[in-house]
Write a structure and sequence with these properties.
The complex is a heterodimer. Helix content of chain A is 39%, strand content 16%. Chain A is an alpha/beta fold. Chain A is globular. The model of chain A has no long low-confidence stretch (mean pLDDT 97). Chain B is mainly beta. Chain B folds into two domains: 7-37, no CATH class; 50-173, no CATH class. Chain B has two helices and eleven strands. In chain B, the strands form three sheets. In chain B, strands 7-8-9-11-10 form a five-stranded mixed beta barrel. Chain B is elongated, with a radius of gyration of 24 Å. The chains are: A alpha/beta, B mainly beta. The structure holds zinc ion.
Chain lengths: 444, 175
Amino acid sequence: MVTGGVTKFAKAHPSMDFRLMVKRAYDYALKDIPELTADRIDGTRISYFSDHFTRQLKAASMVQDYLGMNPKGSIRLEWGGATGGECFQAAYEAVASGRMDICLAAGFETMSRVATWKGNEFIALASDTNFDFPLGGFYTGYYALMVVRHIYEYLRLGKFADVKDEREAQRLAIEEGCRVMSLVSVKNHLNALHNPYAQYPKRLTVEDVLNSEMISYPLTREQICTMSDGAAVAVMCSEERAKEFTDRPIRVIGVGTGTDTMRLADRPFGKVPLMPHERARDYENLPYPGVHSFRAGRAAGLEAYRHAGITNPNRDLDFIELHDAYASSEIQTYEDLGLCKYGEGYAFTERGDPFLKGIDYGFPVPNAGAIPVNPSGGLIACGHPVGATGLMQGVFAFWQLQGTIAKHFGDPALQLKNPKRGAIHSHAGTGSAVTVSILERGFR
Amino acid sequence: MRARPPTFDKFRDVQAELERTGAAIFRDTDGVESLVIKFPYQINYIHSYAEDSPFFLGLAEGKLKGSKCRRVKCGFVFATPRSHCMVCGSPTEWFDLPLTGRLHSWTTCHFGSEAFLKETPYNLALVEFAGVGSVLLARLKDCVESDLYVGMPVEARFDPNPKYSITDVWFVPSG
Ligand SMILES: [Zn+2]
């Protein structure tokens, strides 16, 4: 990867349609490496999630057209929430296979074109429309079902295993789970204060998060990402070409994808596919994935780690930009990606491992800096224009590894010290599809 | 006929104007003006339940139909219709699920997509059945948030006037 660009994500961009949003991100990316001119780009991969939001089928053709890319080759990608992550990998594959020397990945979404609850309806059409959608058509409800079970498996049967009264034990476990989820929400909103691209940067307390409006028990408004308009682009090229454009190229060293059943209800109760640092005896009595964990995230992580030669993600990765559509799914994903064992996500959060060093979160984070997660602010604070989101993560990770955060953000606070390797993680509907890509600094 | 619809600085006001007259101009902080119109879309699909039809016909008769793998060596039992086994790919056969189960997980939705906002708050439940290898998602009625817990016994109820939708079945607390 040699350059990238992102539009500031916003609730609505009525003065730009999707073509102009992509063009702005694209111009930014090209301005960053003047040696790269449009005529040298061999083709594109273009992603957006929903034709319902655009109300324009084949909208990718209009982006290709607007950027002046015709008659070059292009493929449109769509994979629910993981659309952007898939586009990133498709561009990688176009180059890695030798099909192209230089490939542009571009993604966008324009979700402001319908009212919020209609937007929720469109998103929920990405759940089974015979069996799931008619019950409420509500993704937050699905993720609430998943976190209630996650809390049951790991807090009720963990920290609160000794509480005799079943209902009291579950009540205590949910209270504890919500408190810890709120730490994640505080982290991501606060990190975003230093990210000018973020839609909802703010300083919150745990109480603010817990007391915000209840959306689907136990998930509150501040634990959930919102809908956005936005676009992002990334340019990938072969190693030889990369040297022509920048002395700070970033290598994509691993890609992984995973899938699971469309219906939550169909998820099996089997065995955990193990990371190198886990043992079968760690999970003897754990029915997996059930609805508490994302098997697709584990599968994507395993493939990407194997490809990149990563045996211990905590040691081998310096940061992760992951798909925190919900504060709950960020904690669930720590476990899927092997940052801690299954069941340790809450303790891992509380120890502070995924927090940034040098930022005052308003509570103690003893292990801050161990493996920063969503240093950019993630989806919760940056917004989630679906088809752009996975590429936005790619661009933030790229700048992070280049050491150019201060240049692009106009603020050095989020720049990690000398990061060598980072991961990006993009996730679709209840974990039915996940992509993980590993990026590494390609210069000394 | 107006030559120009009214102009607003707040997008909220634009939306309100669209409801009233169908057109408005939005002026952003840079002074850029964009013409915004109302663009309706409605359609009725001709939707077949196809191989899952017996499940929905079953609901109308007060039955919950699950799928059981026909391959003896596999025999996986699903709480949802799957005409072929997810584990081994063999055809499945229908069987009647028990009408009682337990909460595998639950939530109370205080919002929903537009079509369901008027029904809030409503409960969703994943219901597990003894001897069945997967669960079923349904509404949970006649109870409130504070009543609910994982493991709670529940039983099925059916709509006497079936709509041929998954909402023809719901669960209530047992007893
Ligand atoms: Zn089978």
